[in-house]
Amino acid sequence: MNYIVLDLEWNQASYEGSSKKKKILSYEIIEIGAVKLNERYQKISEFQCFIKPVVHKKLQAHVRELLAYDEKKLAEGLTFSKAIDTFFEWCGENYVFCTWGTEDLTQLQRNLEYHKLKTLDFPLYYYDIQGIFAHNYHKQDVLALYKAVEELELPQDYEYHMALNDARYTAMIMGKMNLSKKNFLSYTSLDYYKIPSNSKEEISLLHLEGTEYITREFQTKKEAASDRKVRKIQCFLCQQMPNKRLRWFQSSPTVYYALAQCKTHGMLLGKLKLKSRENGGYFVVRTVTLAEDEVVNRVLQRYQELKEKSESKQDTGTM
Ligand SMILES: [Zn+2]
Known about the structure:
The protein has 11 helices and 12 strands. It is α+β, with helices and mostly antiparallel strands. Strand 11 and strand 12 (282-290) form a beta hairpin. The protein binds zinc ion.
């Protein structure tokens, strides 16, 4: 299996123009860059092409500032459909995508759909190198690509914000981290452009540090957060049902937390993240991870804060 390290550049709808066409495709892909790596993170080949825009022909000011090229260059580009054909042919048969962040594959599929081309099959698994970098170096926040490159003291020979160059940097970061295959594969992500269409299709991913569960779509947030399967917490190390320590409570409009204790493995933190769909519905990403004291205390503190607030308002945030 190869890794296809993909980076896309896109132009954005300008806010003045609000034709229907522009609303349908807010981000139009104008460049594809990719590096093919083998399983030992060694480069096999590279891909780059510009795409002639048909929706947002004028680059938005801030996009133009970032990019190392302009409309003139893009006018010489391939049509989207030709670019896609060439790209997927280059990808070959047995590969998995790696991207810096979580956006590229979703935008790729929006563009595919706009051009009435076949979108990628569900479930689309990939590796978010930005997230993996953060996990690997114990960072709370994800970093911009150039920051990660600086931190790893990699040579900065290429100009940023060109798709191929950004893909090269991402590939270099993968090489430098040089995670064991088992470790790397434990960071599988699901692209959320397509989500499970029913409860049977719901997906459970096992990571090194916990589990991630991705649900089907619900009509309302309330329905999503009160679903029995969504609220289930199980220890991901021994599959036992832990003792509930703190029932699910709503910490923000889209986030819920709960604490539970496994007799063998200690405290577990449950987190529900409610994510909205374009059509107005919601799906849930539930994670269960081991929780260190500091995390447990932070969650308890948040619960107390909200409880005191709601007691003074006579409105409860607990479900
Ligand atoms: Zn356990």
